[in-house]
Design brief:
Shape: elongated
CATH superfamily of the largest domain: Histidine kinase-like ATPase, C-terminal domain
CATH topology of the largest domain: Heat Shock Protein 90
Distance between the termini: 34 Å
Strand content: 25-35%
Largest sheet: 5 strands, antiparallel
Radius of gyration: 27 Å
Number of strands: 12
Bound molecules: adenosine-5'-diphosphate, magnesium ion
CATH architecture of the largest domain: 2-Layer Sandwich
Length: 351
């Protein structure tokens, strides 16, 4: 029993992976979330047997042995897919029959990728924690700024009373107050709302690449792997540029004049950014082969004031994250010695 057009349209909009099998367990229909779970296109899998698609899954009933009227539900099922990769899913198999006495005419299989689900709720939690930390810091920075302005003003007045050769100490006060002021401004983070416009990722990343290349010594090779056909995204150009520069500069600093920086762009399907599922998004990777981020630090890397460098402020990544979020994107990081990847996703324009 093939799936009617209307039913196909309905399952296409489901965020869970949906598969429709005939009684011989050959695939008759699949939705985009299913394609993305299998990492195969519908055309590649039409007609394929369930055991071919999910080779180690024992919960698929053999023909004629599926007598229960109710769906079979399995939680935390670990599957190795025909493409070789593994996923953990919650799976339900529902036999579809005309009446309770007849044999099933089809099987509806629904799968939810639980790891992805867990990742999303973890990310959301982390984001909330970071926002709380950032709000506390912002409050503190505001409180310090006013008396600091007073101190600087008083030192200026004092300096005016003094002859030039005796202004050494007032100059120090003014200089240090300015330094603190700059730090506080950075702590307060980007305050201007984004001015979004349609932006060609390829062009901006070529500029980022040029700039980074001009800053690095000869020991660092900057390599790009850009997909020039990626449609535009809708972001604030300056904020986008700034976020990527912060990430790329960290990578350069981590490699200490020896290594390879790779900038890569790809289009990804079915990406959840914030609370929205997008049909397509661009993923930008900034990858380096430096020493990596220490494991204990990885979880806190986007918090403000977390730094591994003696002269660091720990604000670069926190600012990058704020900028990315302000432009409806997502930033994440994975790291092991010899391979650190910061990935940034943005929805495509018009999504
Ligand atoms: N690509 C990377 N490889 C290794 N460590 C990194 C990388 N990117 C960031 N880090 C670590 O994260 C810390 C925080 O970065 P950031 O927020 O930009 O602050 P800062 O650069 O001022 O220290 C860095 O000090 C560094 O220890
Ligand atoms: Mg930095």
């Amino acid at each position: 029993m093939p799936l009617p057009d209307l039913a196909q349209k309905m399952i296409d909009h489901q965020t869970t992976a949906v598969f429709w099998f005939d009684p011989q367990l050959c695939l008759q229909a699949i939705n985009p979330a299913g394609e993305s779970l299998l990492k195969l296109s519908a055309n590649q899998v039409y007609g394929a047997h369930a055991h071919q698609l999910f080779p180690d899954c024992e919960c698929f009933p053999h023909l004629g042995t599926f007598h229960q009227p109710d769906p079979v539900i399995e939680h935390g099922l670990r599957l190795t897919l025909s493409s070789g990769h593994s996923v953990t899913v919650d799976c339900s198999i529902t036999p579809v029959r005309h009446s309770s006495k007849t044999a099933p005419e089809a099987f509806l299989v629904e799968m939810v990728n639980v790891v992805q689900q867990l990742r999303l709720s973890r990310e959301e939690n982390q984001m909330l924690q970071r926002q709380t930390a950032q709000n506390i810091l912002r409050g503190l920075a505001h409180e310090i700024k006013n008396p600091l302005g007073g101190l600087r003003g008083a030192a200026q007045l004092l300096a005016r009373e003094l002859p030039l050769e005796q202004r050494e100490y007032t100059d120090i006060i003014i200089g240090e107050a300015d330094r603190l002021q700059t730090l506080l401004d950075r702590m307060l983070g980007p305050r201007t709302p984004p001015h979004k416009e349609s932006l060609n990722v390829y062009q901006v990343l070529c500029r980022v690449r040029q700039l980074v290349e001009s800053e690095v010594g000869t020991g660092i090779l900057v390599v790009s792997d850009f997909d020039p056909s990626i449609p535009d995204i809708y972001v604030d150009p300056d904020q986008f540029h700034q976020a990527l520069l912060n990430i790329a500069r960290n990578a350069v600093q981590a490699m200490q004049n020896q290594g390879e920086l790779l900038l890569r762009t790809r289009v990804e399907r079915r990406v959840v950014l914030g609370h929205r599922q997008h049909k397509m998004a661009v993923r930008i990777d900034v990858q380096d082969n430096g020493p990596g981020i220490p494991e204990g630090m990885l979880e806190q890397i986007f918090y403000p004031m977390v730094t591994g460098r003696a002269d660091g402020t720990g604000l670069g990544l926190s600012i990058a994250q704020t900028l990315v979020h302000q432009n409806d994107g997502l930033i994440s990081c994975s790291s092991e010695p010899g391979k650190t990847v910061f990935s940034v996703w943005f929805p495509l324009h018009g999504e």
